[in-house]
Design a protein that fits this description.
β1 and β2 form a beta hairpin. The chain has 15 helices and two strands. The chain is an all-alpha fold. It has one domain: NCX, central ion-binding region (A middle domain of Talin 1, Up-down Bundle). A two-stranded antiparallel ribbon has the order 1-2. It is 73% helix and 1% strand. α4 runs antiparallel to α15 and α14 runs antiparallel to α15.
C-alpha cells in the first residue's frame, strides 16, 4: 500500500507515526521510571540496562525493521544522527529549562555525568575504529568491534552504577552550589503522583505494554515511510535517517527531559541523554545479526562524519560539566552555544557530502 502512495501521503503517514511514537514513548518513559522505583531497580545494574533499552525503543524498533528489510544505511544513520541530535537537545534544556540564572552544566555538574559522557565517547571511538576494518572480517554474522561496543557499554553501566553509590571525592563528586535536589527526584515525584491516583503496579505495567506496542507499530511505519521518502526525494537513507528521522525519534527525550528539569532534576535530564547515547551504538550488533552484514565496515562517509561530530559535541559538554561556566549568552551557557554552533556547521558540512 505504501509503495504506491504519493510523496504528500507518505509525509502525512510519517508525521502521524512520529506523533504516535512521541506520545507512546513518553508513557513508556514515565511508567518505566515508576516501575524502577516500585521494583527497586533505580541504582542497580539491571535497572540501568532496563532503562537504557526501554527508553530507546523507537531506535531499537527502527534498527530491527531496517535490518530485516536490508536497509542498514537508514538504521546506522538514525543511530549516529540520533546521538548528535540528542546531544543538541541539551541546548534546548539549557535555553528553556534553566532560565537566565547560570547554565545547565553549572547546575547539573557531577563527576557521575562526566563518567557517562566518557562512556559515550568510548563507544563512538570504537565505532570509528570498526569502520576502518574490512567488511570480510565477519564471524558468526558479527564483527569484533560490535561485540567490543556492547562490552564497553555494559562495563560503563557497571561503573556508573558503582559511582552512583558514592565516589572517593569530596561531596562524592557533586559540585558545590549546583543542583540542590538529589538526582532521581523527578522519578520519585512521578511515582508519588501515580500512587496518589491509586494506580496499581498492574495498571502501570498495562500502560507500559500498550505504549510499548504503539511504539513498536509506529517505529515500523517510520522506518518504511522513511525509506520510501528518501528514495522519492533522492536523499540517501543514511542522511535521511541522520536528520529527519533522528530528529523525530529525539522528540520524546525533549519532553521527558524538560519535565525532569521543571521538577528540579537537571542531572537526571542530562543523564537520560548520555545514557541513551551510550546505548544506541550497541544496536549495531543487532543490525549485523539480523542483516548478516558487517554494519560498521560498510558505513558511508556521512555516518562516519556524524560519529566524529557526536564525539566532539559530547566532549564539549563533558568539559562544561567540569569547568561549570557561569556566564550565559542568548539564555544558554558558553558550552551550549559552542555545541549549537558546531552542530549547525556540522550539518552544513554534511550537506556538501
Amino acid at each position: 500500500m505504501l509503495q504506491s502512495a504519493s510523496l504528500p501521503l507518505l509525509s502525512v503517514v510519517f508525521l502521524g507515526a512520529a506523533a504516535v511514537v512521541y506520545v507512546a514513548s513518553i508513557y513508556v518513559s514515565d511508567t518505566t521510571d515508576v516501575l524502577s522505583i516500585r521494583w527497586k531497580l533505580g541504582q542497580a545494574l539491571s535497572g540501568l540496562v532496563l532503562l537504557a533499552v526501554v527508553t530507546n525503543l523507537p531506535e531499537l524498533v527502527i534498527t530491527v525493521s531496517a535490518a530485516l528489510a536490508d536497509n542498514v544505511d537508514l538504521a546506522v544513520g538514525n543511530v549516529l544522527g540520533g546521538i548528535a541530535i540528542q546531544t543538541v537537545v541539551l541546548v534546548v534544556f539549557d535555553v528553556f529549562g534553566t532560565g537566565r540564572s547560570k547554565g545547565l552544566t553549572y547546575w547539573a555538574s557531577s563527576l557521575q555525568l562526566v563518567i557517562e559522557a566518557s562512556v559515550v565517547v568510548a563507544v563512538l571511538s570504537v565505532t570509528v575504529m570498526g569502520s576502518q576494518l574490512s567488511s570480510a572480517f565477519l564471524v558468526f554474522r558479527v564483527t569484533p568491534p560490535e561485540i567490543l561496543i556492547v562490552c564497553l557499554w555494559l562495563g560503563g553501566v557497571w561503573i556508573i552504577a558503582k559511582a552512583r553509590t558514592g565516589l572517593p571525592w569530596e561531596r562524592e563528586g557533586a559540585a558545590p552550589g549546583g543542583q540542590q535536589t538529589p538526582r532521581g527526584t523527578a522519578k520519585r515525584k512521578k511515582h508519588r503522583r501515580m500512587k496518589a491516583a491509586g494506580n496499581s503496579t498492574r495498571y502501570v505495567v498495562g500502560v507500559f505494554l500498550l505504549a510499548a506496542l504503539a511504539t513498536l507499530v509506529g517505529g515500523v511505519v517510520l522506518e518504511r515511510t522513511s525509506d520510501l521518502i528518501a528514495r522519492r526525494t533522492g536523499v540517501s537513507g543514511a542522511i535521511f535517517g541522520a536528520t529527519a528521522l533522528a530528529a523525530v525519534t529525539s522528540l520524546p527525550e525533549v519532553a521527558t527531559g524538560m519535565a525532569a528539569i521543571k521538577l528540579g532534576d537537571c542531572e537526571l535530564a542530562i543523564s537520560d541523554i548520555f545514557g541513551g547515547n551510550g546505548f544506541l551504538p550497541t544496536l549495531f550488533l543487532v543490525a549485523s545479526l539480523l542483516s548478516g552484514r558487517a554494519v560498521l565496515a560498510t558505513m558511508p562517509p556521512s555516518t562516519l562524519y556524524l560519529t566524529a561530530l557526536g564525539i566532539l559535541l559530547t566532549s564539549i559538554y563533558s568539559i562544561g560539566l567540569i569547568v561549570r561556566p557561569r556566564r550565559q549568552r542568548f539564555r544558554m551557557g558558553i558550552d551550549s552555544l559552542l555545541v549549537l554552533s558546531l552542530y549547525c556547521l556540522g550539518v552544513l558540512g554534511l550537506a556538501t557530502m
